[in-house]
Design brief:
Blueprint: H1 3-10, H2 13-29, H3 35-87, E1 92-95, E2 101-104, H4 106-112, H5 128-138, E3 143-150, E4 156-166, H6 168-172, E5 183-191, H7 193-228, H8 235-260, H9 262-268, E6 276-277, H10 279-289, H11 291-296, E7 312-313, H12 316-333
Antiparallel strand pairs: 1-2, 1-5, 3-4, 4-5, 6-7
Helix pairs in contact: 1-3, 2-3, 7-8, 10-12
Length: about 350
Amino acid sequence: MSTGKIIESGFRILPIQILVVVLLFGLHLSGLVDALPALIIAAVVGIAFFWIDRRYRIVVNRLTDALKTARSARRNLAPLRAKIAEGIDAPLLLIDPLRKVLDANRPARTLFGNNLIGRDVSLYVRHPDILEALGKVMQGAPIARLEASLTGAVERIFSISVSRVDNSRHASDSDRESTEPAFYVVISMHDITKMRVAERMRADFVANASHELRTPLSSVIGFIETMNGPAKGDEAAQERFLGIMEEESRRMVRLIDDLLSLSRIELDKHVQPKSSVQLEPILKGVAASLEPTVQKRHMAINILVPDSLEPVQGDADQIHQMLQNLTSNALKYAYEAAP
């Protein structure tokens, strides 16, 4: 029962008092009741009803004050809840049954833009899987969870929860605003890009390590076989081969360090190199490291570097690794003794 109905029923006691007094007075006029007993009964009944009415009004006033306090507390909590949502470091969207965005916290506005409040959510959230999950929740499903990749300046992967929140005030408060919806939909998004990237990198680690280490290891093994074979008594050749083997071994150590440092690999993919390197020394180093393979397949590596070649921006080890992989694949898959 609402406050207005309680107060209205309280005023119905006064007409009952008047009715009792009039009834007793009528009985007295008809001679059925003496005057003194009628007055005494009327006085007792009037006092009783007056006391009941007073107690009733006290209860009503207390209920009214309690309701006002509860509503005031609820209104005071609204700004606090908004501040809490604003401080959450994950996009949050509040949607009404008409698919309009009622509110969005700071991360959501950063992700989708500052003009989405008051507009249809599909104008800003265009991923079909998210919209499908929203449709299911709109039709009555309590919650829907999914993962979605959103493209922008940088691709990001989100774990998304779309949940339905029923509005209890819509069913219980008789004095609610007519525009208040029966339920809301909350879309919460958690960025899991780093976690998914780390999982992929862990899965690729063994394959990358075996691929990147195979070429320099093959070169070292080739030099060892040459030193134990044709160059066994050639001290000059052995000295030159040992220098190349040392450089290849050191490069493998650096390569292993890079492979073990997953964070550096991921960061370097988006970081522009700041150092400049000369390509000719790198090319000569690649040719020297692959000399055993070249001799085994009766092939040759010719390096032609124009005098006008400018230094390039990049990491020397990474450029060496790239050129060595390309040249090694060319030697491996070309016909033997091909020019």
